[in-house]
């Protein structure tokens, strides 16, 4: 299987004014499903409405396709159509294949009922060395470098975004070897309009894709569960071949949902420490688009009945009905993580585990891990363990864990005092005023009273102080049961050794 490279959405190159023709019939896609191959709108229009090639070249055609009347069509390179009363702009974005002379293959269209979309048929091309895609799309807002719709929702600063979601009703008609249907948005370092700022981030969410569109293992499967219950994988993070940071996510279900809560992705990235630019609140979000990325040997016809964006209570609508489905209201936090326990330790690290939290509404999305009050890590909701590194030997630390649900509600914390394995000293600290002794030569301090022998009094003292840092931080001296940590089971082991 050839692994393709998703490219940043930038288009350059010559303009093609004609369009390709699809063929009748059907074929099997890589997943084994049979999809209807789409009849070219030109053929339908020529047969039913007498549209001429010259009329199509002007970008206007009228015909009947699947019960909808096409009132406008554009097939030239990077041609545009306004949709949703100007809230969106429909773009025939062939930025990849327009870079080389070839037969045109892609058109965008608008129907009389307010729906719209695009169709394409792409054979073998030599568009660019990376075999990069075309990306017919609809944009609400702007891109950092070109294009803009008339919506007032964008640009907006990242720190001001409290709610960001999309409402979708899309017939994704893609077929063939490699394609996807994806949402995408960008951040810039200063306020647009065009040319006002350089991109710092590009973020893509792949909603549906063919089997051959693969990037290997995810950074984190199930990284996010959004307010609508969508499970989202963090698929790839690209920093080496771009001038900005490119995060790619994908839906685990691999099918187009009715809604996606994008705020959950923003929250996830806010805690993602491996981004070279970070996510400061003064960054500007320019806009959001959705479209099919298409590679060689793919074709299809995608119709958008609704693509709406909700930003902090205001909605930009495109399509037919303009009604936005609100996410379920969830104001109840998950239960707190419980029974935190040390499972392993070295001289510079401690591993802890806990019992899973529960949340009956939107589910546990993630856990946040705090060291001495500072958040240092986050793990997916299905993970209940973490290793904390770069600690100092013979030092105790307070570790806390909270659970966060799909609506962003955070639980109370569960906490534990931990310490790496001790390294210094031939004897442990004093316990109850006495330095415990090793009377058996096994390295373990069995005589806690200093009497020269182990008695029930030593067991009682050990039991009374088993939670003291002077004991818990030194499994080297008190790990009688050999599990790498100090707990009441070591008291039992000491008692049984009498």
Using only CA atoms, what is the Rg? 30 Å
* Main structural class: mainly beta
Report the major sheet.
Answer: 10 strands, mixed
CA distance, first residue to last residue: 65 Å
At the fourth CATH level, what is the homologous superfamily of the largest domain? Glycoside hydrolase family 11/12, catalytic domain
Supply the number of helical segments. Answer: 7
CATH fold name of the largest domain, please? Jelly Rolls
Strand composition percent: 35-45%
Based on Cα principal axes, name the global outline. elongated
Please give the share of residues in helix.
under 10%
Q: Would you identify the CATH architecture of the largest domain?
A: Sandwich
**Residue ranges: pLDDT <50 for 5 or more in a row?**
1-7, 10-65
CATH top level of the largest domain is: Mainly Beta
Mean pLDDT: 82
**Strand elements, count:** 28
Total separate domains: 3
């Amino acid at each position: 299987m050839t692994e393709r490279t998703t490219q940043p959405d930038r288009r350059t190159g010559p303009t093609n004014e004609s369009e390709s023709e699809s063929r009748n019939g059907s074929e099997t896609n890589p997943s084994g499903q049979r999809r209807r191959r789409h009849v070219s709108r030109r053929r339908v229009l020529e047969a039913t409405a007498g549209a001429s090639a010259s009329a199509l070249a002007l970008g206007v055609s009228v015909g009947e396709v699947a019960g909808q009347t096409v009132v406008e069509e554009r097939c030239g390179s990077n041609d545009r159509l306004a949709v949703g009363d100007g809230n969106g702009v429909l773009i025939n974005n062939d930025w990849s294949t327009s870079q080389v002379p070839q037969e045109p293959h892609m058109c965008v269209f608008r129907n009389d009922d307010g729906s719209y979309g695009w169709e394409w048929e792409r054979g073998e091309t030599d568009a660019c060395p990376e075999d990069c895609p075309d990306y017919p799309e609809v944009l609400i807002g702007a891109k950092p470098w070109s294009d803009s719709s008339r919506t007032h929702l964008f640009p907006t600063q990242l720190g001001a975004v409290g709610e960001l979601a999309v409402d979708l009703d899309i017939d994704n008609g893609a077929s063939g070897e490699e394609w996807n249907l994806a949402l995408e948005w960008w951040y810039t370092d200063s306020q647009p309009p065009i040319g006002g700022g350089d991109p710092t981030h590009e973020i893509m969410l792949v909603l549906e894709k063919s089997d051959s569109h693969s990037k290997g293992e995810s950074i984190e499967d199930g990284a996010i569960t959004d307010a609508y219950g969508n499970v989202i994988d963090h698929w790839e993070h690209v920093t080496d071949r771009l001038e900005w940071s490119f995060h790619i996510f994908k839906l685990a279900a691999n099918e187009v949902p009715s809604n996606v809560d994008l705020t959950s992705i923003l929250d996830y990235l806010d805690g993602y420490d491996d981004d070279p630019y970070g996510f400061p609140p003064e960054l500007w979000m320019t806009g959001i688009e959705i479209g099919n990325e298409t590679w060689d040997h793919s074709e299809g016809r995608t119709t958008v009945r609704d693509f709406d964006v909700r930003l902090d209570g205001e909605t930009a609508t495109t399509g037919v009905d303009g009604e936005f489905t609100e996410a379920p209201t969830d104001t109840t936090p998950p239960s707190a993580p419980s029974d935190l326990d040390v499972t392993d330790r070295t001289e510079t690290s401690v591993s802890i585990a806990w019992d899973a939290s529960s949340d009956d509404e939107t589910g546990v999305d993630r856990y946040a891990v705090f060291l001495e009050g500072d958040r240092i890590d986050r793990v997916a909701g299905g993970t209940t363990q973490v290793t904390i590194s770069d600690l100092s030997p013979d030092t105790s630390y307070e570790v806390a864990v909270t659970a966060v649900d799909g609506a962003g509600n955070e639980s109370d914390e569960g906490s534990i005092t931990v310490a790496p394995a001790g390294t210094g000293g031939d004897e442990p600290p004093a316990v109850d005023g006495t330095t415990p002794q090793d009377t058996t030569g096994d390295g373990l301090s069995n005589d806690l009273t200093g009497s020269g022998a182990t008695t029930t009094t030593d067991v009682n003292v050990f039991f009374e102080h088993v939670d003291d840092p002077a004991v818990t931080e030194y499994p080297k001296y008190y790990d009688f049961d050999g599990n790498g940590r100090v707990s009441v089971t070591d008291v039992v082991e000491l008692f049984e050794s009498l």
